[in-house]
User: Fold these one by one.
Assistant:
Number 1:
Amino acid sequence: EAGVTQFPSHSVIEKGQTVTLRCDPISGHDNLYWYRRVMGKEIKFLLHFVKESKQDESGMPNNRFLAERTGGTYSTLKVQPAELEDSGVYFCASSRNSVNYGYTFGSGTRLTVV
Amino acid sequence: DAKTTQPNSMESNEEEPVHLPCNHSTISGTDYIHWYRQLPSQGPEYVIHGLTSNVNNRMASLAIAEDRKSSTLILHRATLRDAAVYYCIHSGAGSYQLTFGKGTKLSVIP
């Protein structure tokens, strides 16, 4: 099966601009997650979708971040306006409808805000 | 936060077995133990998970202590491709969040 695809792989934007990251999960995976690693820190959970519904968004840092999953397929994570501290690697993962299955992560989007 | 303790780094010779330890003394009775690894410039990769019994799959084995406060990931024959950061995570049965720590950086010596 095809893996989790993230686009773009790299993005460099100026502070104050808007960036949209996209994630295509594995077909049939109802669960979709966003994680990120900012410089020097550990990988942190951002949010969890079950189909098109946000199940848990407790990790979203602030209201500059907006995640959507239209139709329960692909997801987007928009950062508006971007700040310097948003720089890092954003990972998307998907899984079947049970915590007993492993998560499949994408390769990530490296975001640099200058 | 579901905390685990792992050594910062370990080394292994190629084609030898590797035992990666993890302490998870705060684990509750229904928490699963997960292991992921991250190769350079890639996202985390699922390795194995278990609850109480030892588990085997094509990648590795997971040995869980009887009191479940520690576990060991076993790579039976390390290859250069196994050089990565290995993360031990425990999460509640109803929780879908993975709490990553610093992990163990495994180096494999040819």
Note: Chain A is about 0% helix and 50% strand.
Number 2:
Amino acid sequence: GENVEQHPSTLSVQEGDSAVIKCTYSDSASNYFPWYKQELGKRPQLIIDIRSNVGEKKDQRIAVTLNKTAKHFSLHITETQPEDSAVYFCAASMIFNKFYFGSGTKLNVKP
Amino acid sequence: DGGITQSPKYLFRKEGQNVTLSCEQNLNHDAMYWYRQDPGQGLRLIYYSQIVNDFQKGDIAEGYSVSREKKESFPLTVTSAQKNPTAFYLCASSPERGFTEQFFGPGTRLTVL
């Protein structure tokens, strides 16, 4: 099956700085890549997703890039704020809606 | 945060006991999923169901069982065969079979005493 690796496992940034989280996947058949944010004690929520026919997608301060050739995709958060502090998960999907999740990145934004 | 609910929020189990976790959704979604979340790890798929009366094993199905008798409900039973059941369990649903967002419930934290 698919294998998704996510780095780094923890990330500390100063408020206002940018944060980048990277994921790699193993199966070139994967064609849908969502990112979820999970605040402490809460459920994961989708923040952005990208399909394999698109190289980049932006939504305000959040962007995702996809390199199909290299089989990696990244989450970019600009102008970070304390409320961005959470655990972020990437995922890849190739069939149906079966997701393979990365191990998560704990982002800490220091005020 | 409405739409998909899980109960109970916390559950304690003695070794050797089976327990059932509830998951209900009123979003009219066809597909439902169960994940297990352990500290420092991502979400791992236990079972999923694309339609009523049909379900498939995920990556870590051993020691778990499910049923899908109604579209709105997808209960998960953690059996005594699951050797390390202490974890956070998340249920999710999605509206269609294609690639789309999965909506998560609030989770159930299971602890084996």
Note: Chain A has a mean pLDDT of 94.
Number 3:
Amino acid sequence: GQNIDQPTEMTATEGAIVQINCTYQTSGFNGLFWYQQHAGEAPTFLSYNVLDGLEEKGRFSSFLSRSKGYSYLLLKELQMKDSASYLCAVRDSNYQLIWGAGTKLIIKP
Amino acid sequence: ETGVTQSPTHLIKTRGQQVTLRCSSQSGHNTVSWYQQALGQGPQFIFQYYREEENGRGNFPPRFSGLQFPNYSSELNVNALELDDSALYLCASSLGRGETQYFGPGTRLLVL
């Protein structure tokens, strides 16, 4: 079966750094996506990895290791507005997205 | 350039009824994917349409059906509504079948 695992909830302090992990087992791999979803809103695209390594985009970075079936999203200089759920999704061999349940990130002052 | 739009934003139906949800894709996007998201869960893939044809379907019963029009807008139809169909229904459009998906605001459906 296909499976994407993320921690259910994480707490961090404003101004700090947090790393959200994602492990996956899917039928084929054609890229991994991270989306941010604020409560009651639609997911918004954050990052895409298809090759191993780190992709940096401002305060957000995403890392991929295909051999380990592992990715992480790194958020730096946390702001209160970063409080949201972070969804990991893998594009499988049929080019369909398989989604994790999301990690709820709580930022405290 | 307008983003992905969905209508209605909220809907209340009773068990056994039928519902049609609508989605307008982002300009230039020819692919639309529909998802069901229950509270506290990740999106579950319903199906995808590419250039008016179904291009993949998730584990949903046949009472979930869809359509894509020549302008690439799309509809999701659900027949014989059940209480468990209560969820946020998300539509996402993309430039192609394997491209990054951009989501609309969703339709929140409540089945009583």
Note: Residues 36 and 86 of chain A are 5 Å apart (CA to CA).
